[in-house]
Amino acid sequence: MLSIHKNRRIITIFGLLLVALIFAPSAQSYPYGVSGVQDAGCTCHGQSLSPDVVPELEGLPIELEPGGTYLLNISFTGGPSGENPEALALGGFHLWTSAGTLANVDEMVKINPDGSATHNGIDATDTGQGNDQTEWQVEWTAPMDGGAKFILHTNSVNGDGTSGGDYYNRLNLEIGPQPVEQARGLVVLASAIFLMASITFGTTTWVFYRRDPGAFAWERFWPFLSDYLTSTDHKKVGTLYMVNGLFFLGVGGIFALIFRLQLASPGNDFLTQDEYNQFFTMHGTTMIFLAAMPMIAGFANWIVPLQIGAPDLALPRMNALAFWLNPAAALLIFTGIFSGQGADTGWTGYAPYVVSNTAHSGATLWVAGQILLVASSTVAGINFMTTFCTMRAPGMGWMQMPLFSWSMLIATLMLFISIPAFGIGLIQVLLDRTIGTVFYEVAAGGDPLLWSHLFWYFGHPEVYVVVLPAFGVISEVLSTSARRTIFGYKSMVFALAGIGILGFIVYGHHMFTSGMSPVLRFVTMLTTMLVAVPTGIKVFNWLQTMHGGSLVYRTHTLWALGFLVTFTLGGISGMYFPAVAMDLHLHETYFVVAHFHYVFVGGIIFGLYSGIYYWFPKATGRMMNEKVGVIHFITGFISYNLVFWPMHRLGIQGMPRRQHTYFITTDEYFALPAEAADWNMLITIAAFMFFASNLILVYNMVSSGLRGQKAPSDPWGGWSMEWMVSSPPPTPSHNPSDLPVQQFAEIHDEGEPGLFGRMIEWMMIPEESHGGEEE
Amino acid sequence: MEAGGDVFHMLFDEWNFWSAIVMIIVSVWLFHHSLKYRAKDGKSMGESCDEFIPGVFPKENDNLKMELTWTIVPFILIVYLTYIAWGPLDEMWSADPDAHEIGVTANQWFWDFDCMADDPEDAETIGQQNVAYNDDGEVICEISTIDVEGETKPLLRVKAEQSLAFIMTSNDVTHAPFFLDWGIKEDTQPGMETRLYYTPSVDEVGSSLLMCTEYCGKQHSTMTAVVEVFA
Ligand code: HEM
Ligand SMILES: [Cu+2]
Ligand SMILES: [Cu+2]
What we know:
Chain A has 17 helices and eleven strands.
């Protein structure tokens, strides 16, 4: 009975969605792409297309003169126009061009805010206006280089004052050199995704096959897969997050390789400017939102409940929802490329560019995809905060939480507080791009800096959100490997919290050159300098943790030590920017690119790799191959530094980021130093090596996961609660009727709950019986 | 000419010095500890090792004095660096009333310069000016074009030792002129006026590159110009 009701509800919902889709305005605001308002001609009357109406566009030259001005004649014949002697109107037109500018010569024509031209006069009684014509004139100024496309719609009107019986037709014209490579972006992206998809599919089936080669049958493949796809268990969702993250790390890496090829030699034209812009945008977006964030969520899913002694996360279904928003978002983010119009805004998507009509139409769906990611992060944030507040094992106070859990708690809080600003900004941009609101339209009074403020209010905390969990991993790994309690547990927590608070008041350092008020610039210069203090505390505490210990060299130890080197370098180069006078030179150069890759790759990715080697035995019940791991570390660490270290130098020499090429010309002053070409070549070669070294990790994970030695429950001798359960852990992860109780090596004073703990208890609705989770 | 102005190089050298010191401390510490305190046979435990038992919060390991040291010492260094970085700000941000104003208008994807009228208050004389003179009748600002490898680029010529104020805006989206050899840049925003102040010295006589360093769309990377300082 129940299921019938359920089905009916689902059918109704889908039916409603379908109806809504049919009537909803198209998501396309420019007349290229899948379907758009513009397809129907001028918006006032555009019901029916008729081949009888013949639009004409005259006045275009054979050979375009750059910047030249041409008088265009627009006319049409045929259709119902003129048949009715008492006609109130004769016809209309709409002319759109991809390049150059249109201007009106008389009042018959007006120029729309998006640069297209249309006839003047809208109502039925305005005799003598632009809609009483079948011929119009506009002036077009050709672009400085390249050709242009025109889309002309003409409307043949019977003049009965309604739009019934009117017919339109459409004319496409091209002039001058057209970009020939329109589809190449598509091909390359499709190949990148296809490649990664086949690798993922291949590994999945291989894993499936090797689990039990004797009992292999394709019929069992789907149950094996659907078990993962429909699970709400934190471990399985964690695995999905990890696979998703590594997949997009690969996709983003391939993007990087492609545009590195372009930069390998000066003045290269492997990619067009247009393609280059899409690739670095997609690279940045993919790496941050589709690779780093999901990988962190993967770790958090896997480890947090195990580590704080909880059977699962507090809201397992919400958890699955948060994950499944990701693939959908990824699809939206990439969709634009399939029409040759991928987002080309940079990962920061600065307004007013992002709402201007020079930005690609793919930016619309790119924004929509990111809105889904905002939703995903919000849902996940609620889930994790609830879990931390309510599900710590009995006896585990706030100040006894393992440091990885602490780092996740602070990261979640930061994300939760900062992401609404981003969400609001994105929704405004989406509205601007689709239904014509003017939040970012400067001509209509929009603030040109609004987006930058909203974005960086989120963006700076965001970079801490991704780096803090890596800090957590390093704290765990170093302490376990050195067999020493982490040095200064309390100051580690306070440093995390300090970074969490400072992280919100420093974002202005991204806007030192934006024209923001000097007072704000000065204040954020001071606060940014201050961030070095808690970060320094962490680094020195890590170093001191090794003191008196007995460091065991495992692959995860190597990555952790490597992290200490590269992250410190990244932190130090970060200190160059708050000095505003220096930032004026360094801003938007490769020095910045070098800096944030030292933090992103040398910090986050290395930290997460360390975490993979560290927790892999726990997750799969098998040890990873140490020999292969060491090869991965050595090749990865060396090639990584070869990629990013020379970028510092390029930046100081003035090579700007986000630029499709750089100049080494015979006019000495119009060029970077000649050595820049060699450095760039080296970087490109090393980038391929770095990419290849990561395949070693994938190989190691798959082969060790299948054939590795069986892992004991506590292979490295760690103390936190994930090492209490078997490897791989049972489901539920900790037995809910027999939860572990936190023990202490030293007598500790009953300071718990502290102020923070009491505050949270005060905020929570009192429960009837203690520990009674929802079933 | 080298990229980056005097202020940049002064600060840069100072920062490099302190960075090297910090990095040396960290590396020596890292290598010393990770080698000295390693488990020689991969197994044995030193006597000061902590015993880890899953589910048992380990013995504390801290030392308030040390932790305070590496809170306070870096803090002092930061204060010192902030103090140094502060100085040039006044110079960079304070308007010189005698500065000659030069208009910079960014467009997708080219630069428009304007030497501006002698008296910007006088609306009559405002309009694109290709040349401007000082009180002695010497040329202080001149705008023309130059051929670079077959492409025509805008050329802005300014007189050395002449204090300049760039009054900048944009006609469409955000751009940012980057005066490579002077090491300065600032965004141009539509509907907003931003400013840059600079006085090229006689040492800076010669030509250099001006690039766009705020992403502005398709032809962002070719949005260049040439700036020449003459004595
Ligand atoms: C194979 C490894 C990688 C290489 C060779 C690489 C290379 C580059 C280069 C050369 C740029 C500058 C592009 C330009 O400004 O024209 C860039 C931008 C960027 N990269 Fe990477 N990268 C790699 C991995 C990563 C990872 C792992 C992350 C983050 C977790 C990342 C995040 C970013 C971001 C956010 C940008 C800025 C994009 C923008 O300007 O909008 N990259 N990368
Ligand atoms: Cu920041
Ligand atoms: Cu520009």
